[in-house]
Records
---
Amino acid sequence: MSILCGLPILECVYCLGCARWLWQKCLYTAGHESENWGLATAEEFEPVPRLCRLILSVYEDDLRYPLWAPPGGYGINPDWVIVKRTYEETGGCATPYMIYLDHDNVEIVLAIRGLNLAKESDYAVLLDNKLGQTKFDGGYVHNGLLKAAKWIFDAECELLRDLVEMNPDYRLTFAGHSLGAGIVSLITMYAVQNREKLGTIERKRIRCFAMAPARCVSLNLAVRYADVINSVVLQDTCTLEEKMLKDPRRLYAPGRLYHIVERKPFRIGRFPPVVRTAVPVDRRFEHIVLSCNATSDHTIIWLERESQRAVDLMLEKDRIMEIPAQQRMQRQESLAREHSEEYEAALRRAIALDIPQASYSPSYGTFAEVEEGESSGSSSGAGSLLSFKRIRERWDNFIERLFDVDESGRMVFKKSST
């Protein structure tokens, strides 16, 4: 009889456990993960919907007679398309892509489309990876995506170098969606490591926008390349597991994150989108929370629509506030400083969490540590490696900025850095 009386209690515990799992996996709101992040501005987020349309145009067979154009068209000039590669031309080594010389926005763009559900070669690229299989610049990257990135870079580096030299004031921008987002992220990292192959381009002229990217880099690389890589995520969220942060082989979304939030819990429909941004360390969308909108949130069409709505709302807010042009320029300069400070804070946070190879650098966009022989994709030339003396000097500078020595001779954090 006592055993039978205990059965209802066990059933209740089981039901509560199932309810908790359902809440975490299906009903958990994405906004919680980025609620403490700062709000993005129109100036920094403006390229996103424009580049989404450029990625969408890669799907077209003939850009002069488009079949799938979004409302308002792609906003591109077919005469400015330099090359447009198909599956036949890539041989299945990468998804189709396009190089576009955008004179209106002063940039050279390499745009790559996302996963084709009907192409086995795309699955082969995506599934070509094992945990900890490939090392790059002191961290780990997705093996199949790195192969695709190297293939595209090697195939187009001469053309890109010519375009960079002919247009010395233009940015070099890489953009992609889903599988293509992972590829362009690694192309960007590979290009930064091999800038000599692109002529005289500086690191600050290279940038990447990865739309709904595949997890492709380890946490230390995700933070260290946040000055050149921007990941855009619509609504999807994550559940934090501390043990995954301790595994240096785990792969994450790369770079600075832009989180578009446009739904609320227990509310029907989409709301005016809010874009939050940060260089997070603890929460980088490690797990996708299941929902009825998970698939649509990942598509490039919805990313383009919601990002354009977000930009329009930002511009409307600026118009209502009647911000003068001089103040806009000052805001851009202030934004650059804030991004730099946030980036350095993320590196310090990674060090505090004992993330392997999470090096700190006092200057935004330069990094101190590359160990000889550990990078499968970095340049083999001596010029690409910092000398041991410079590494030591930067490490000493890092120690002096963060620590003091107390009366007992022990190192303690400075009060200004805590």
---
Amino acid sequence: MADDLSSFAKDIFLLKTLKKSTIVLRMVVLVLAMICGVYICTICLKQVGVQTETGILDIQRTESVCPEPIIEPWEIPYVHYPKPKTYNRAECACNPVRNFAILSMQRSGSGWFETFLNSHINISSNGEIFSVKVRRSNISTIVETLDRIYNLDWFSSASKNECTAAVGLKWMLNQGLMQHHEQIAHYFRAHGVSVIFLFRRNLLRRMVSVLANQYDRDAKLLNGTHKSHVHSHHEAEILAQYKPTINTTLLISNLNQVNGTAATALEYFKSTRHIVMYYEDVVKNSTKLMDVQDFLKVPQRDLTSRQVKIHKGPLSGQVENWNDVRNTLIGTPYESFLHDDYSK
């Protein structure tokens, strides 16, 4: 009996010892689990912190603001930082760009003038964009086209892309400009577009050029090809052989109309930042091209053009019915056109 009691007591002691060991083991496992949990949480928090910091840096890098250029306060509305949709301006992203438009009339030297601008490494003048009728069909298509040009998303042979400092186009007055002048003037002011007016003083010479160009569209004197502008003296001599006959009955009214159109354009866009240039002044004085570069706020460079003038010398040798034209203009405000001459 005593042996049984002793054995029973031993069993109870072993059970208690085993239970204590199990509790201790569970506590050890729990502590280890807690330590592991804390360690894992610490690692995760560090990773989240690094990702958050990286995200903030990426956002800051993406949304970095270009430093303000050193300019006069009045110039601020005319300085832009385009973000093209079609390419990255890369290291030139913080190079400011100025918007401009050359407003002119056909055969006023605008094509020749534009080649000078495009010889500048930082100027992109994209040509006669609105000669295509669909682009000027309404104000919406006009604005859409202008947005692409001034955002540097318009590609032409003149585009300098990344490091463009001045971007614009050549726009003839009869290409939707006068019909939508209020909305376009508003657009120019809102988008800081500087206007370069380019006219000819001698409207009689312009008329000769217009008539000769119209004739060549059909005659195609240069080996069956029509060219509005040429790059060799030989081609210029061939085109200059044609002498147009001017309708003297309509001559005065035509000159009045062209003169009035130019005056109206100046009135329509007088609220924009603008400069008025004359073809004759550019021909006679190369410093006028420096004035344009100053106006566009681009570095001064020597500008060049490969175009060759077609009609040279006195007008008397360029008009078929010269005596009739001379008699019509003598005693009128346009008489000075008869005597004006320049050799270039």
---
Amino acid sequence: MCITLSLSSKPCIGVCNGSLQSPKSMVTTARTEVITAPKRPNTFPGLTKQGISDIDLRVQEVVRRQSWTNSLDGEVNCRKPPFEPMFIDDAYDKCRNICAEYAKTFYLGTLLMTKERQKAIWAIYVWCRRTDELVDGPNAEYMSPAVLERWEERLQDIFEGRPYDMLDAALSDTVCNFPLDTKPFRDMIEGMRMDTRKSRYESFQELYLYCYYVAGTVGLMSVPVMGIAPESFVSAYTIYNAALYLGIGNQLTNILRDVGEDALRGRVYLPQDELAQFGLTDKDVFSRKVTDAWRDFMKEQIIRARSFFNLAEEGASQLDKDSRWPVWSSLMLYRKILDAIEDNDYDNLTKRAYVGRTKKLLTLPLAYTRALSKPSLYLR
């Protein structure tokens, strides 16, 4: 699973307040870049047209439903729980503490954000983490479809101002302060259902959909909170796509890092058809032997993961300046995980690639420098 946060307080589609909509060809070019990222295009057929359009429709729907004028002073269509301010402050403090404990680097980046955005991001992070733990946490053995059904009902209660506990209350308050829609949250729960039903993925198209559900959705949840820079000339749809790409790239990186650990649980989150193209099967994964064929296969997978980070990169520069640092930190650190896999001679079967504390600390000022870059007119 992946718990990562990506990128409006003023999203717009087309022409908005004098801003120019980016050309449609921009999205087409970006998606083509993802599909043809590997150096040997015949190796990876990529996504089918239908697979792409399915995600396009989801993103378009989220942009439309989350696009009211201003996240902090626009009209709010929600039922705000009648809690005392001190109770809500305590609820957000609990979310902050959880984020600080389990996502230390990202948490440091959030400290530059405005207070309202900080609290909202912490609340979203905590909900995503709790959702993930239903399947991967210490009580995962007790998971059943009924648990996820109840969790989805509880999500609806959160959006309707009936939180179950203090952590739910923080998110319930957040959805009244920002234009958050339930769809990305529900889609994440659907990703958990997927995890209980599937342990193999026949093609990258299937894996891409899974990555959208469990990680791309986090980016879509975060867009209304992070804020788009006032000087940005890029459409909201393009920014949402950048957030989606960052989530996909992060999840693909998690999958590549955790191949050996997942194999011990009988899971293979790798496209079966692409394994076959390199003469590999699940048996090779479970044998945990690094061969030349495995190295060649991993090189192509890493190229693909990096292509998603490339697509996300300039989207990160379109954010409100106070929100860029945590996104750049996440993007740069996840790239270093891919570097670590290479440094391990592509042995992700018996070794876990990780970025040491020193490298993480050295990355933070570099990420801050990148966060100072101004939005450009067009994405590459």
---
Amino acid sequence: MITAATPWGAMRGLESLSQLIWGTPARVLVGVYITDWPLFEHRGILLDTSRHYFGVEDIMRLIGAMSANKINVFHWHITDSQSFPLVLELEPELASKGSYGSGMEYSIEDVKRVVEFGLENGVRIIPEIDMPGHTGSWAEAYPEIVACANMFWWPEGAPWEERLAAEPGTGHLNPLIPKTYEVVKNVFKEVATLFPDTFFHGGADEVVPGCWKADPTIQKYLANNGTLSEILEIFINQTNPYILSQNKTAVYWEDVILDSEIKVNPAILPPETTIMQTWNGGPNNTKRLVSAGYRTIVSSADYYYLDCGHGDFTGNNSAYDQPPGTEQGKGGSWCGPFKSWQLIYNYDITYGLNEAEAKLVLGGEVALWSEQANGNVLDSKIWPRASAMGEVLWSGNRDENGKKRSGDATDRLNEWIHRMVSRGVKAEPIQPLWCVRNPGMYQKKEPSECDTVIRFAAYLYT
């Protein structure tokens, strides 16, 4: 018997039941009583579909695997400077001119399929339309509202702090142009209609000073003693009400109030209607956000960025021109090294918080930014590392004595990988197959290549 307060709870119960079945012929554990609920309400995966396009079938396969892992939020980072793949009736040229092509767009019907599939599988679909930074693709349709579009992102001889973008390509919306808000309002209105979830992610990360400073309109504003932070405040003051008017809660990246150079006064983003998502500074920035009263989603790049550790994607990088014997460091990846499942599993997202502050942490999201990822590698980039986060955000990473249980988690994860593969998810292995077929061969205190006993252990969050 499964008893649950909601259909989603019953769905999680059925998933647990399915994991009590194993073997050929099938065997079922009996006499088992499970009381199960999540520690954190927000357990998510962010996928960037701008830098590379992911087909709808890829996205639906991801959502299906998320449901099996009891991960309940798909954060869809739909647009960025590289492409605008979302087809909108109110602003059709954003996709027709800003996408990679007609075969690499998401139609209204595509979005409906994804949203309905998420609903059927207990996964919320939260859209992100990143702005005012990361909007170079908008310039293909509206060049007049985008500063520094289609310029080389890091002018020769310029210091890092004077680059025009966080990475190529360039382009920030210009908050001083009235046309900007006509377009933004149409985008917000239609996206809010397409996605019924109560959260709307407005981005607001990585507003780079060099881009706005390169624009003549903004140069005049600055010459009259204006500041870049004031320009960002103009944008947020104009656009945040659009989000709220659609009965949405606004989600922003931490930069909007924590950036060292361009940020808004937190008073214009009250905690009652605003959620912050942190990606920098590990526990320190989480502490800063919750101390200010904000509900917070943790996506620390030091632990939760799944794209890290694969090297740099720009060419002509001198970091790779090294003589033999040179210490590799991060290997050219700004957020390297690779974030292993163990690193993810052992991260405590409320580290250093008091009880009141910890209650403001809604949960976490692992993130796959797609500079070096597409549908061919989607499964292996995400699974089983996201599974590790899923277990921790559901039931924690410590046993009843407060000791980290990553050793037991290895058993569960190894078995669970095979279950995911049997369901069509091409998850990455975490140990040699020999370890699975030779249980008990490595039961030493000192770590070894196969340092756990591989035995049947259903992937249960109890």
